[in-house]
Amino acid sequence: MDKIQSLRGMNDISEAQAEKFLYFLQRCSKIAQKYGHKYISTPILEQTVLFERSVGNSSDIATKEMYRFTDKGHNDVSLRPEGTASIVRHFIEKKIDKAGGVFRFFYYGPMFRYERPQKGRLRQFHQFGCETFGEDSYMEDLNIIDMVVNIFKFFEIPTTLHINSLGCDDCMPSYKKNLLNNISGIKLCDICEKRKITNPIRVFDCKNEKCQEKLQNIDKITDSLCKICQNEFDSLMGSLDSLCIKYIVNKNLVRGLDYYTKTAFEFISGDIGSQNAIAGGGRYNHLVEQLGGEKVSAVGFAIGIERLLELINKPKQDQDIWYIGATNDEALEQLSKIVSKKRSDYIVLTDYKIRSFTKHFNNAIKKSATNIAILNKQELTNGQIWTKDLTNDIEKIVSLSNF
Ligand SMILES: [Zn+2]
Ligand SMILES: [Zn+2]
Predict the structure, then answer these.
(1) DSSP strand E in 58-118: where?
(2) Domain contains 212
(3) Of the ligands numbered here, which is closest to the C-alpha atom of 222?
(4) How far is the CA of 211 from the centre of ligand 2 (A)?
(5) Residues 362 and 262 grouped into a single domain
(6) Distance 191 CA to ligand 2 centre (A)
(7) Do residues 295 and 393 both lie within one domain?
(8) What's the burial of 230, exposed, middle or buried (CB within 10 Å: 0-12/13-18/19+)?
């Protein structure tokens, strides 16, 4: 029979990668909780309209990259291309937006985009992210950025922070009008020509060098901010300075999604290819309202996990791992009881086959155990067990009641 293979662009995460993956999620979850964020899990499948209305029509995701299909109940559904929209949907559906106050969430899980699987591009990939609702202050933007900085610091991943301000309802619309005038006579690439109609500021997002060259001298939104946006942007930069967080103001940074307002940021890693963003986020003060909720401000970020796995080191083992084995029938009968008791405090590996002392010993070493216990006939008759602490090289025979 033919072997069944996984789908293109969809990878298993296993072995050493899986160990790092889990470690990353556990660490990030702990860090997010320190900043007051609470875990939330939303379905990977949603009504397509949710993403159409949130991600926006000018983004590549909505236009061509969604895993979209009709289910058996004739519903138009899509696999989530990102995490924010579902959380906003939840926020509105549960009427949290009407309650007032500040709410902080973190999430992780698989996201789906039907991209051409070029090197490194996955159709199923994982993100870890945080969202804060109901906090207007730029200090929350700072908080969010500080959290990402601390995550990368913990994993010793060198990054460069790029920031920009995308303005607000007062300054963005007039800027857009001017921008459209300024670029109407300039012939850009096909994608940018479409962007002129859907969302002109996204021309700055273009990877085409010719477009970048032609747009070099065009005024950016950062040069046309209203007083409030400018003050907030200045305050944010001042606060980043005071926390000794280094950054670059990147006026071309407009982010791939339409819903961003004010602060936008990306963390660029020099280690993966050229100029690759490994995390990004910003403020999106209109999205809750845009999806039918109250006017509630929001800010958040997402980190792509797969690309980081190559950059992080395997977790240091800071817990004792016991290996317990039996060398004869009587010992084997006792094994489960002894293992079960030891598991209340430790990670315990075992082997349900009778093996020689040496075989068990070598097995334990192979499995990176830190401590070995072997049930031999002689000790067992005395109610004892042979043990060795490999870290400190100490051998002991201890009473089973104390083991
Ligand atoms: Zn403004
Ligand atoms: Zn272009």
Answers:
(1) 68-70, 76-79, 103-112
(2) no
(3) 1
(4) 5
(5) no
(6) 6
(7) no
(8) middle
- Between the CA of 198 and the centroid of ligand 1 the distance, in Å, is 21
Pairing mode, if any, of strands 298-304 and 261-269?
unpaired
Do residue 253 and residue 372 come from a single domain? no
Sequence letter at residue 219 = D
* 0.85 surpassed by pTM: yes
Give how many domains the chain has, as a whole number.
Answer: 2
Distance 247 CA to ligand 1 centre (A): 21
Helix (H) or strand (E) holding 210: helix 209-215
Give the DSSP letter of residue 315.
P
E-assigned strands of 71-123? 76-79, 103-112
Whether the CA torsion 253, 259, 262, 263 is positive or negative: it is negative
Question: What whole-number distance in Å separates Cα of residue 297 and Cα of residue 135?
Answer: 6
Extract the tokens encoding 316. 């240091």
Average pLDDT over residues 384-397: 94
Distance, in Å, from the CA atom of 189 to the CA atom of 69, rounded to the nearest integer, reads 31
Query: pLDDT band at 205, cuts 50/70/90?
Result: confident
Residues with a beta carbon under 5 angstroms from ion ligand 1: 167-168, 170-171, 226, 229
Alpha-carbon radius of gyration of the chain: 27
Ligand nearest to the Cα of 203, by number: 2
My answer on whether 252 and 398 are in the same domain is no
Q: How far apart are CA 147 and CA 274, in angstroms?
A: 24
Average pLDDT, the chain: 92
Ligand nearest to the CA of 200: 2
Find the domain containing 394 and state its range: 321-402
Tell me how far the alpha carbon of residue 63 lies from the centroid of ligand 2, in angstroms.
16
**pLDDT of 255:** 78
Considering the domain architecture, whether residues 59 and 93 belong to the same structural domain is answered as yes
Domain boundary among the residues 309, 344, 371 is at 309
**End position of a domain, from candidates 256, 282, 309:** 309
Residues whose CB is less than 8 angstroms from the CB of residue 157 and which lie 6 or more positions away in sequence, other chains included: 269, 271, 278, 308, 311, 312
Tens digits of residue pLDDT in 191-202 = 899 888 888 888
